[in-house]
Records
---
Amino acid sequence: MQRRFARCGRDIKRRARRRQYENMYWRSVAAVLIFGIGAAEATEWEAAGKQWWKHVEYLASDQLEGRQPGSSGYEKAAGYVAAQFDEAGLKPVLNGSYFQQVEFTQTSLDASKSSLSLVRNGQTFAVPVPMEALLGYSADSAASLEAPVVFAGYGLSIPEAHWDDLAGLGVKGAVVAFLTGGPDKIDGNLCSHYSSTEERWKAFRAAGAVGMIAIPDPKTMEIPWSRTALSWGEPHMSLADSSLSATRGLKFSAYWNPAEADDLLADSGHKFAQILDAAHGQQQLPRFRLASSMKATVSISNKNITSKNVCGLRAGEDPKLKDEYVVISAH
């Protein structure tokens, strides 16, 4: 029987999977919400279900080509949702338009000019990407980097729970490696929040780290590595306003295949199986400096992309509450 500690790991994976599905289906969600306004009064629920499914079929169809921001497929999806807003009686609120322009930065990777290696005892060992690890890339990625690596348990810093895996560890100028998940003693919702990439990196950056390596617990991985690796190398999208970036200042990142984690931990005096045993037994995880340093070259190009939010307003009818707003977001 799976121990309760896994709930935090599941929360993290669900958050990641939810973000992925939002990217795929946010337009269909918006359409569903709009249709739901009228469908609430319908008595023929089978017909309502068929109409809902038509929205999904169109928005998930090949003709929209995945609806990547800035693409023609995305423009078609945005126009479709705006038409649903108009049909449902929602008012355009952006200078007579349903569309809000949003600026993005699209980061593309040149895999042929990018590499990842471990440097240990004067020797350099190439890390096969993406079989052994996924090399991260974003607008802030360093073109080249070599830094020591420190293993910081779960890598969590949670003031409310009086928990700090970074305390006294000394990670300035280093890459922080950690096991995903968290201890059972910490509330699942609290753990899930601080396990987000944004919160983890915020703590690492404040401590002076330059990057991070996430090692998933095989017991809570819901997507096999072979499938996860298929998405590596695809362009990444981020908000152009760097102040809104969840990973501002992140020079290096990697996602390590747990089946190959002992390569990362070699000569450190620790085995990945021992770390997992401690985690599964709700024991304190070790914290230590690895014998290997990380060396990476990342070749990226950035491109400015303009895309759209679709916004509409349904005015309230209650004389006392009509000036209060409920915001429903599909992304």
---
Amino acid sequence: VYMDGAPVETQVIAVQRSCLIDGVWLDPQVAPEFTGTNGNYALAYDSAGALQGVVNRSNTVYTVSTVEALGNSYYVPTEQFAIDAAGGYHVIWLGIGGINFTLQYRYSQDGGVTWTPEESLTDNPEIRQEIKPQLVADPQGNVHLLYIASESGNRVEYRKGTPEGGWGERVVIAQTGSESLP
């Protein structure tokens, strides 16, 4: 388990890691791979059991395993990371475009060795803002994205990304009266 916070006995705020071994949880310890972060990270284990993911350090999104900078990010926790059935890595984060927040995306089909160029999934960031993304991959290799969009009110929207066709059109799931978390 990875978590933000400080164990009572140390009061050192950091990303903490605790493991369950033979039915017993170990005491939390600082996770060294997250030193210098602002607590924003998204993780998954690859098919070999290695920890993969992204972390925000000083408003830049980096890969956990190779410490490669993927793009500029806003401070709030928005990084999302998913590994699809074919082993492809998908990363979404909140960037700043125009005057609003934008959803940024990159993909790696070779375990994070190379990445596609950064792609903004937000149309017209001068009037549209997209925040609070949630990303998952399915067994067919597709990725599913939920987020809050504001442009004449708030709403929960959905987009599907496929290996063959890229990102599909937006679908409005619900109008909301406030910024809810999808």
